[in-house]
Amino acid sequence: MTHGYYTSGEPIADAKAPAGAIEERWTTRKFEAKQVNPANKRKKKIIIIGTGLAGGSAGATLGEAGYHVQQFCFQDSPRRAHSIAAQGGINAAKNYRNDGDSVYRLFYETVKGGDFRSRESNVYRLADISRQIIDQCVAQGVPFAREYGGLLDNRSFGGTQVSRTFYARGQTGQQLLLGAYQALMRQVDAGNVELYPRHEMLDLIMEDGRARGVVVRNLIDGEIKHYTADAVVLASGGYGNVYFLSTNAMGSNVTASWRAHRHGALFANPCYTQIHPTCIPVSGDHQSKLTLMSESLRNDGRVWVPKKAGDTRRPYDIPEDERDYYLERIYPSFGNLVPRDIASRAAKNVCDEGRGVGPGGLGVYLDFADAIARLGRDKVEAKYGNLFEMYERITGENPYDTPMRIYPAVHYTMGGLWVDYDLESTVPGLFVIGEANFSDHGANRLGASALMQGLADGYFVLPNTIGDYIARNSLPPVAETAIGEAQERVRTRIERLLSIDGDRSVDSFHRELGHIMWEYCGMERTEEGLRKALDLIPALREEFWTRVKVTGKGEELNQQLEKAGRVADFFELAELMVVDALHRAESCGGHFRAESQDEDGEAKRDDDNFGYVAAWEWAGEDAQPVLHKEALNFEYVKPTQRSYK
Amino acid sequence: MKLTLRVWRQSGPQDKGGMVEYKLDDVSPDASFLEMLDVLNEKLIASGEEPVAFDHDCREGICGMCSLVINGTPHGPERATTTCQLHMRKFKDGEVIDVEPWRAKAFPVVKDLVVDRSAFDRMIQAGGYITAPTGTAPEAHATPVPKPDADRAFEAAECIGCGACVAACPNGSAALFLGAKVTHLGLMPQGQPERWDRVVSMLDTHDEEGFGGCTNTGECTVACPKGIPLDVIGRLNHDYLKATAGGKKR
Question: What residues does each domain of chain B span?
Answer without folding.
Answer: 3-111, 117-246
